[in-house]
Amino acid sequence: MPRAGSGLSLGERVPGSVSSSAETSTPFERIGGQGRIDALVDAFYHRMDTLPDAKTIRDMHADDLGPVGEVLKRYLAEWLGGPKLYSQERGHPRLRMRHRHFQIGPAERDAWMLCMQGAAEEVIEDPVLRSQLLHSLYKLADWLRNDDGNPHDAHN
């Protein structure tokens, strides 16, 4: 999946795997495949739905989080090196374009990351992989900012 503007490489094949074999694996495989991605997204949206600190981002969503959860499951799976279902169904991610009608600043980024960090701590057992994933997701969440002070739209 193209990662224009994000500079992320988490979805590329990496040496090593959860097992001790010499095979290479993707983060998708290292996390545990689609089932673990599904659990991560479910835990993420549970936090968004229940944490008071996530109210600002929860209010950006429809009452039923099911459909957007399915989209995020496909996106994350593909982004992490799994099946290319997201782009087959929706085309290029164009994440900034798809989120432009929401006001996203540091507070929204941080609320999103609060939910994702808790979900990752619950679902992803490997602390190194979890840290790498959260680092990359932070960069992605920050890149989605569209507030007046965001560094991504500054022109030199």
What would your notes on this structure say?
- Helices cover 54% and strands 3% of the residues.
- It contains 8 helices and 2 strands.
- It is an all-alpha fold and 156 residues long.
- 28% of the residues are buried.
- The protein is globular and about 40 Å long.
Element-level helix/strand string: EEHHHHHHHH
Computed structural class: mainly alpha
Strand content: under 5%
Helical residue percent band: 40-55%
- Give the mean pLDDT: 85
Number of beta-strand segments: 2
Unreliable spans are 1-9, 11-22
The number of helices is 8
Strands in their spatial order, largest beta sheet? 1-2
Sheet with the most strands, sense and barrel status = 2 strands, antiparallel
Terminal CA distance reads: 29 Å
Question: How are the SSEs placed, and which strands pair?
Answer:
Elements: E1 14-15, E2 24-25, H1 27-31, H2 34-50, H3 55-58, H4 66-79, H5 85-90, H6 95-98, H7 106-123, H8 127-143
Antiparallel strand pairs: 1-2
Question: What features would you highlight for this structure?
Answer:
single chain, 156 residues, mainly alpha, two-stranded antiparallel sheet, 2 strands, disordered N terminus
Quickly describe the structure.
The protein is an all-alpha fold and 156 residues long. The protein contains eight helices and two strands. The chain is 54% helix and 3% strand.
